[in-house]
Amino acid sequence: MVTFMNKIEGLLSKLSGWVLLLARVSVGIVFCNSGWYKFNHLEQTIGFFSSLGIPQAQLQVPFVAGVEFLGGLALIIGFRARLVTLPLIGVMSVAVLTAKLKEVTGVASFVGLEEFNFALILALIATNGPGYFAVSRRKRS
User: What pLDDT is attached to residue 139?
Assistant: First the structure.
């Protein structure tokens, strides 16, 4: 039984690079799309940010759109994926604090927030690396 479990754990370990690749590309597509939307709907998004009480929304929206779009592209190709996750986690944190926190009624509703789950996936990429097929993947020694 132990040998069988060891084989399963070995197989799962070999799959981690593929799982990280899928997570990185999936989240990258979402952020790229979100940033693109913000760029193409600046006035609408500025109004939304303003309604949330975000200061200097006319400056914040293009900045956030750029972080999301360029960060998403970087994640898709795996360029400096670990570092790229940090500003995206920041964007998700601000989104939770400004737009979603009022929806939270407990731990389950907090961990169920889309933004929390994106931040968690980004944190996994930051700590475990980009997975396979990343343009700036470090060589293992």
Answer: 57
Q: What is the token pair recorded at 35?
A: 């940033």
Q: What is the rounded CA–CA span in Å between residue 41 and residue 136?
A: 32
Q: What's the length of the chain?
A: 141
Taking residue 108's Cβ as centre, other Cβ atoms within 10 Å add up to 8
* Burial of residue 8, with CB atoms counted within 10 A of its CB: 0-12 exposed, 13-18 middle, 19 or more buried: exposed
* CA–CA separation, 20 and 71 (whole Å): 16
**79-114 pLDDT per residue, tens:** 999 999 999 999 999 999 999 999 999 999 999 999
Helix (H, G, I), strand (E, B) or coil at 39: helix
Half-sphere exposure of 5 (CA within 13 A, CB side): 2
pTM value surpassing 0.85: yes
